[in-house]
Specification:
Blueprint (H helix, E strand, L loop, with lengths): L2 H4 L2 H11 L4 E5 L5 E8 L3 E7 L2 E7 L8 E7 L3 E2 L3 H8 L11 E12 L2 E10 L2 E16 L5 E12 L18 E14 L1
Antiparallel strand pairs: 1-4, 1-11, 2-3, 2-11, 3-6, 4-5, 5-7, 7-8, 8-9, 9-10, 10-11
Length: about 190
């Protein structure tokens, strides 16, 4: 006799439903989050910047990582390094070309557990180019907020080569090296609530 014939119908339904329950859904809270970057200038100093306009969703189930995923859309024109003239340059065709490529997106493909951390793998689309990247993450929570919602927090950092995305502007320095490094460190600190 087959196994399914031995399980009462109601128990079988509960089993089947529990196996397809989706992960909890969290919306990124920009008021308590930051999406930033860091790049070397003149080969010696680090310039940091961030984006102020973005939205995203995280689906997270620590017991079923196959159901976990994340997506974020960033408005490229919201770049801010604290220097208006530099930000204007970053928005033009030398760098982000925000009129032609108004958004930067990340769409996850998988989430893996690695000891006490996670590794999220997904597609980053920037400047009209899509490349797979990996971001080591720590994920905290969920915890209950005073407003009655469940909240999680994600922190991660990775490095990409901007040349891979066609962001190629640079100037050679007389003493060797270049004005802006190709390597760009991406830093995310995200709080998200159900």
């Amino acid at each position: 006799m087959k196994l399914f014939q031995l399980i009462p119908n109601t128990m079988l339904m509960i089993f089947l439903l529990s196996s397809v329950v989706s992960a909890a859904t969290y919306k990124i809270d920009p008021a308590h989050s930051s999406v930033g970057f860091a790049v070397k200038h003149l080969m010696i100093s680090t310039v940091k910047g961030s984006f102020s306009d973005y939205q995203g969703t995280i689906h997270f189930d620590p017991n079923n990582l196959d159901q976990s995923k994340a997506e974020i859309t960033i408005q490229a024109k919201s770049i801010n390094t604290g220097v208006p003239t530099r930000d204007t340059h970053l928005r033009n065709s030398d760098f982000f070309d925000v009129e032609k490529y108004p958004t930067i997106t990340f769409q996850s493909k998988s989430l893996q557990k690695q000891n006490d951390q996670y590794l999220i793998i997904g597609d980053l689309s920037l400047h009209g180019v899509t490349k797979e990247i990996q971001i080591p993450l720590t994920i905290q929570g969920p915890v209950a907020s005073p407003f009655g919602t469940q909240v999680i927090a994600l922190e991660g950092k990775t490095t990409i080569n901007r040349q891979d995305f066609g962001v190629a502007w640079n100037k050679n320095l007389d003493q060797g090296g270049v004005m802006v490094s190709d390597d760009v460190t991406i830093e995310i600190n995200v709080e998200a609530a159900q």
